[in-house]
Amino acid sequence: MESDSLVPPLGLGSSDETDEIIKQLEAQRSTYEKSGEFLEAEKVHQRILHFKAEQKQRREDELSERQAKEAADLETTFEEEFKAFNDDWDNRMNTYKENCKEMEQQMKGKQENEFETTKKSLEESIPIIPKHSSEYLNLKRIQDTLVRNKEYVEAHAIQQQMIDLEENEKKDWGKDRDTQISLALSTLSKRHEHELEAFKLKAGKGFDELKKLRAAEMESLLKRYQNLKAEQKNAHKLQKNRFYGKHTTGSGLYKTENTASSKVLFTPRAQLNRPSTAALRLTIESHDEKDAQQNN
User: Fold this and answer.
1) Coiled-coil intervals in this record (predicted)?
2) From CA 132, how far away is CA 245, in angstroms rounded?
3) What residue numbers bound the domain in which 212 lies?
4) Which end of the chain is more exposed for a tag (fewer CB within 10 A), N or C?
5) Is residue 287 domain-resident?
């Protein structure tokens, strides 16, 4: 059989090589047909059909493999992006909490210093020994007069009254002094408590804002992924419709025999392009600057 010796075995060769083989077989079939060797032409025709079926199956497998790889690439890219997103946000929120904790400790230290400084100032500014009362000063004048008149017994009696009065006044003054200092320090402590509570409230609101922003960006990321996944699914459907020669809305009729490579309609890594961590990073300082600008 001359035709069998001229035709390469089935299942060999790349797509381009197969195209060349089919081209040669078509020429051979045409020759047999023109020469009236119809049985030989039929054998070559069957071999052509076999090659075309094999070629179509190979291209179908290649299309399925390529689409599966694109779907896997998109899934992998999203998983990497999702992990990077969570790692970045975990770092940002932990940094925020650490900064707040550090600022709280600094505030407490400042308040402790202010408390000790105020206490020392009060201790030094409020005398331990009180000024003599008008009653004491009056007794002192009487005593002086009695001494000048050499009335020592009466002067001694007045002196004892002065000593008792001074002791009582010192006791009363000590209580009043302690009360003044205690009241001033208590007022200062309450102010410190209010300052600390206000800071914690502000820090809590800031953390809540970060959580809201994280949730919003997470939703945006998931929507972007779902949109890309739907776009990819639609592109794959169009590619298969084109391969099988089906009608598609707005795309016309595609030929079954597609000898050219299908154009890549979707590139996962290029499409799923998330802003860099640096661009998205939110710091306490940036919030403060924004607040300052709005206040101005």
Assistant:
1) 86-113, 211-242
2) 115
3) 2-258
4) C
5) no
